[in-house]
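Hi all, a correction to my earlier message: I attached the wrong file for TAXI family TRAP transporter solute-binding subunit. Here's the right sequence:
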Amino acid sequence: MSGPRSTLGLSRRALLRAALAGGAALGATACTPSAPATPLVIAGGVRPGVYISLAGTLADIWRERLGLDGAPQVLTTAGSTENMQLLTGGAATVAISQVDVAADVATGITGPGEPMALARLYDDVTHVVVRRDSDFRTLDDLRGARVSIGPAGSGYQPIALRLLDAAGIGADGLGERAELGLPEADAALRADRIDAFFWSGGVPTGGIRDLADELPIRLLDLGDVLDRVRQRFPVYSVGTVPANTYGLPGPVACLSVRNVLLVTAAMDDGTARALIDAAFLDQPRLAQASPAAVTIDSRSAIGTQPVPLHPGALQFYRSAKDY
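and the right structure:
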């Protein structure tokens, strides 16, 4: 997305600040937003991780662009499932989540607490990481193995369980099951305390790349189970991790899932529009926060189905061609 001319940038900044102050109309829609009832709190993710990096950058962008007295609070969390619990429970006003988890949580929720999307951010790819010198090649080889499926509260533990079910193993078919976050799983694989671990993140994920720099790894190819998973859960798609991403022997077929930026229906249209408008004004900063965010743009950002876009976000996308 190309940057705005300086005069336009100043005009939009003034409009954005007015949106949170509740005193001006935003763009062609001429809406009159009100200030948030509570300070912005963003449910982020684990450290190190793309979620927490993007959440911190968004907090800085919103503080600067919207003239807030202080940066929004960023919460370190286990990931998507916890983020959605925080959002729907009112402890967070903004959250990042995998779209599958968001859609599951949103089922049956109506009214002010209904989760609504501001934007599709980027796509996560599920990694199943093993040592390259191991005999593990497919999910079926993990039968009886020591495997970390990710921590409770993360978005990738449900994916791990669905993949294992599709492979005919299930969680009970593992030899030992651990629920480790990425740093702990990384350390356990290095120390030979586990044989494999699941992780879902942008490509490349820094923690996996650092591991691959010190320990030759392989990602299990998921091609033999992807059709079965997608038949049951069409929200997923097929992704590929190129060989040069982590120095792999070859490209690997993986499961892909979209990540979305969310608020609830309780947020007024002007504030929602101001948040996403400011984010796109500084999209290059998001890309600097994580290589995964390079793909964020206003054309792909509307792809949040089955989670509906917030009306304020719709206003932004409908008028984005004017920017």
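Sorry for the mix-up. The domain at 6-121+259-322 is CATH 3.40.190.10 (D-Maltodextrin-Binding Protein; domain 2).
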